[in-house]
């Protein structure tokens, strides 16, 4: 699958870096596994919340980088969701037309 993969921060903690690699591998796969993508993005959210709770004095620049990446991921996932919705709507319209034609 050809997708613009967000640039992840080089300063992410190891747990987030591993999650970022998992997100990249899902996005670079030949066919999108929407369930897996949702799973790793949700895991990322939990990792970030945990990281922020454990590290009260986090560098502001790192926070801005994480926010930028998460905004890019949100935009990407929403775009993919809209694409999938368009495909599904097209499929349903075609199926309806075939049924109408058969009558």
Polypeptide structure, described:
The protein is built from three helices and no strands. Helix 1 packs antiparallel against helix 2. With 103 residues, the protein is mainly α. It starts with 13 loop residues before the first helix and ends with a helix. It has one domain. It has helices spanning 14-28, 34-54, 60-102. 77% of the residues lie in helices and 0% in strands.
Give a quick rundown of the structure.
With about 100 residues, this protein is mostly helical. Helices cover about 75% and strands about 0% of the residues. The protein is elongated, with a radius of gyration of 18 Å.
Write the layout of secondary structure elements.
Elements: H1 14-28, H2 34-54, H3 60-102
């Amino acid at each position: 699958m050809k997708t613009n993969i967000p640039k992840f921060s080089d300063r992410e903690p190891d747990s987030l870096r591993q999650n970022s690699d998992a997100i990249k591998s899902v996005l670079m796969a030949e066919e999108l596994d929407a369930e897996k993508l949702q799973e790793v993005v949700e895991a990322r959210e939990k990792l970030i919340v945990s990281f922020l709770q454990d590290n009260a004095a986090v560098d502001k620049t790192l926070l801005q980088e994480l926010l930028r990446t998460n905004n890019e991921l949100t935009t990407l996932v929403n775009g993919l969701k809209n694409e999938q919705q368009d495909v599904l709507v097209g499929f349903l319209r075609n199926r309806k037309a075939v049924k109408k034609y058969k009558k």
